[in-house]
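Supplementary Note 2. Why include the ligand at all?

Several targets in our set were suspected to adopt different conformations when bound, so apo predictions alone were not considered sufficient. For every target with a known small-molecule partner we therefore ran a joint prediction. The input for NAP is given below.
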Amino acid sequence: MYDVIIIGAGPAGLSAGIYTSRLGMKTLILEKLNPGGQITLSSEIENYPGVCEVKNGIEFMACWPEQAKKFGAEIKSEEVKELRIENGEWRVKTSKTIYKAKAVIVATGSTPKKAGFEGEIEYTGRGVSYCAVCDGFFYKDKVVAVIGGGDTALEEALYLSKIAKKVYLIHRRDKFRAAPSTQKKVFNTPNIEIIYNETVKKVFGKEFVEGIILSSNKEIKVDGVFVFVGMKVNNELIKDLVELNEWGEVKVNLNMETSLKGLYAAGDIRQNSVKQVVAAAGDGAVAGINTVKYVEHTKE
Ligand code: NAP
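The joint prediction is reproduced in token form.
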């Protein structure tokens, strides 16, 4: 029996684990992939307060699991299949076993959305990518397209512009939603060509992507397509247990408590999340501290 089980080892889950274990709770963190979360796909993190050196996501997250383990948290690579409550105790069923806990924090984050063009799925891994830091290297001195107009698309277009010969930045409107400072950098980068008011209709190629066709039927030869069109919350485990908002995000109060007692949600999965590492870490701390209060109260 654990005091707290945390599902997801991104910034929110690991921060929660640091707090709960440091406050003396027997803590288990479960992660289906490697610890670090979605942010490990980012090429540069420059806005985390107190960290002045610009690092990529993998470097940035490297010591978070170690910090949680230092205070006694266990981290296991197991996919959670089901979450349910039985006689006031949580049962967390994974691919290997069933764990029990007094409280659960769900920090399963979000995953990149698909843009929806023809060939997107078929060419994923063969020229269509959702991660510039993972795949950018393959496009040295080549031509790539980036789709999207948010912070991720513009930041990753800048990253790719340092590797690729040319980057087409394709946005469906004529205004970006990315931060003005990032937009300015993009406008000042000579090898980024912006294409406004267009979407990608189709990718084509033999084995690998060789080009794209835009909504205006214009054809552009590219070697790769990077898709950054927003995130979808990973709510599968709890969507039938708790209240959600219209976008499927989990409703929480200021303590990160969901509509079910003893079940907390933190990070990208919760309503009104600004989807920033610093905010996810903050959520994790809030959820962690309040979970400890809840567990101590139930012990009394
Ligand atoms: P986002 O802000 O939701 O932007 C998604 C972009 O994709 C929008 O420009 C949207 O166009 C476009 N789009 C959506 N569906 C599309 C489709 N099917 N085809 C073509 N274009 C499509 O997503 P994000 O950039 O991933 O950012 C998510 C959150 O993380 C945001 O809150 C962002 O501020 C934050 N973030 C922050 C940083 C940072 O602070 N350094 C870095 C990365 C992300 P419209 O504009 O027309 O809707």
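The mean pLDDT is 96. The longest helix spans residues 277-299. Comparable summaries for the other entries are listed in the accompanying table.
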